[in-house]
Each structure stands twice: as structure tokens, then as C-alpha cells.
Design a protein that fits this description.
With about 250 residues, the chain is of the alpha+beta class. About 35% of the residues lie in helices and about 15% in strands. The chain folds into two domains: about 1-95, 3-Layer(aba) Sandwich (L-fuculose-1-phosphate Aldolase), CATH 3.40.225; about 100-248, Class II aldolase/adducin N-terminal domain (L-fuculose-1-phosphate Aldolase, 3-Layer(aba) Sandwich). The protein has seven helices and nine strands.
Length: about 250
């Protein structure tokens, strides 16, 4: 059934859905964003109103979390629909995060990106604050999913300095630490972007423990090469830097 005007939902008008099926899909996608937000909060990857999540649902429509709302409190009616310039499409009492600029830059630079997650996972953010990039080739899972993780130069939050700082790294990396700020992960789906954030924090935590225990023992070049070859076997999506070390 095609809708000529809009579908009425509590206190909202969904102006961009053309069919009942599209409308229901929007609701499911918004609920999925809320679920990811709840997980970020439960895992202590965000505090207070920190972090933001976006999902590209068509060539010119994003679903994005609002500003000023704890990820623990997200419900579907709070999730905004914006265009690829960050303009709100459907009227809402909520406003998009000022950090949406960072998400938009990722979508503009990478056509393969479907979802972006920004959070402040504490151990990974600790590495970003200490200015130590995560280029320890120790765990097969991290080697496969992330490779090395660079640190983008510090930018003032909510300004274009942050998206500008990402540009050097977006062609090769799906996960980037933000100096003295947090981390961002890009994915081929909402879950894919979120899982990379989880993998990042687990990688950072195990690396931190290993360093405290006396040092990191990395895999040798053959072992690393064999791990990287599995990406094609497992049809893993996204960009990957291969083997690369950063100057510390």
C-alpha cells in the first residue's frame, strides 16, 4: 500500500517512507540503533551523553542518534532521519549531534561504509591519550578485523577539525583512534561497525595487560601473512592496512 502523505507515529510524521514495508523497516533499524547504544553504555564505552551512531539507509538518508541523550535511554522515536548534509528530514523535537560532521565525512569519503559508531572505550581511549597507536600484531582476531589502529591528530569536538583529521586514514582504516578524544569505527552494517568497536577495546585491553606483564610478543611475519590471507577466505568487508608500523 503506497502512502500519499505520511505515516503517523506518536508525535511524529515519517515523511520519507513510501510503503508500509519501508516504514516497518525504519522502525526495526531505529530499534537496532537503540540496542547498539544500550550495549555501548552497558560496556562503559560511553558515559553521560557521549558517543553517537549513524546508519545509512539509502543514498540520501541517514538514521542518527540525537544530541544530549544518554545511550542508555535511547528509544526509536528519538532516532533522527537526516540527509547526507546533516539536515533533519522528518520534524522532531530532538536535534542531531554536532559530531554528525564526522560521520558524514566518513560516508562521503567511503562509498562502502553503511554505518559509523563513535565512542570512548576507556582502554583504547587511554592509548589515544598516551599517543600510542595500536600496531601490535599479537591477536589473530585483531589482525583480521582491524590491522593496526592509527591515531588521528586532535581536533576540537563538534568542529570540522575532527573530520579533517580522519582524511589521512580513511582510505586504509575502518577503525581510528582520536587523539585525547575516543575512537570511531566504520562498517558494512550497523553490527559490523559496532563489532569493530568491541574488538578495538578488547585488543587495547589485552595489549595493556601484556605491556604491564613485561611486554608484547608479536606474531612473526609468516604468521601475520597467514592471518591476513584469511580475510579473503572469510569474505571480510571494509578496508585494511595490511602490515604497517607507526613511529612512536
Amino acid at each position: 500500500m503506497f502512502l500519499e502523505q505520511a505515516i503517523v507515529v506518536p508525535d511524529r510524521l515519517l515523511l520519507i517512507a513510501k510503503t508500509i514495508g519501508e516504514f516497518m523497516n525504519f522502525l526495526e533499524q531505529k530499534q537496532a540503533i537503540c540496542d547498539i547504544g544500550h550495549k555501548l553504555w552497558q560496556l562503559n564505552f560511553v558515559a553521560a551523553n557521549d558517543g553517537n551512531i549513524s546508519l545509512k539507509v539509502s543514498d540520501n538518508v541517514l538514521l542518527a542518534t540525537p544530541t544530549g541523550i544518554s545511550k542508555s535511554e535511547l528509544v526509536p522515536e528519538m532516532i533522527l532521519e537526516t540527509d547526507m548534509q546533516g539536515n533533519v528530514i522528518t520534524p522532531s523535537k530532538y536535534s542531531p549531534s554536532s559530531e554528525l560532521k564526522m560521520h558524514l565525512r566518513c560516508y562521503q569519503a567511503r562509498e562502502d561504509v553503511v554505518s559509523v559508531v563513535h565512542a570512548h572505550p576507556p582502554i583504547a581511549t587511554g592509548f589515544a591519550i598516551a599517543n600510542i597507536p595500536l600496531d601490535f600484531y599479537t591477536m589473530p582476531e585483531a589482525i583480521l578485523a582491524l590491522g593496526n589502529v592509527p591515531i588521528a591528530p586532535y581536533g576540537t569536538p563538534s568542529t570540522c577539525e575532527v573530520p579533517d583529521s580522519l582524511m589521512e586514514f580513511l582510505p586504509e582504516h575502518d577503525v581510528i583512534l582520536l587523539q585525547n578524544h575516543g575512537a570511531i569505527s566504520l562498517g558494512s552494517s550497523l553490527k559490523n561497525a559496532y563489532y569493530k568497536m568491541e574488538t578495538l577495546e578488547h585488543y587495547a585491553k589485552t595489549t595493556f595487560i601484556a605491556l604491564k606483564l613485561g611486554g608484547v610478543k608479536e606474531l612473526n611475519q609468516k604468521q601475520i601473512k597467514d592471518c591476513l590471507a584469511l580475510r579473503e577466505k572469510y569474505n571480510m568487508t571494509g578496508k585494511h592496512p595490511g602490515y604497517k608500523k607507526f613511529e612512536k
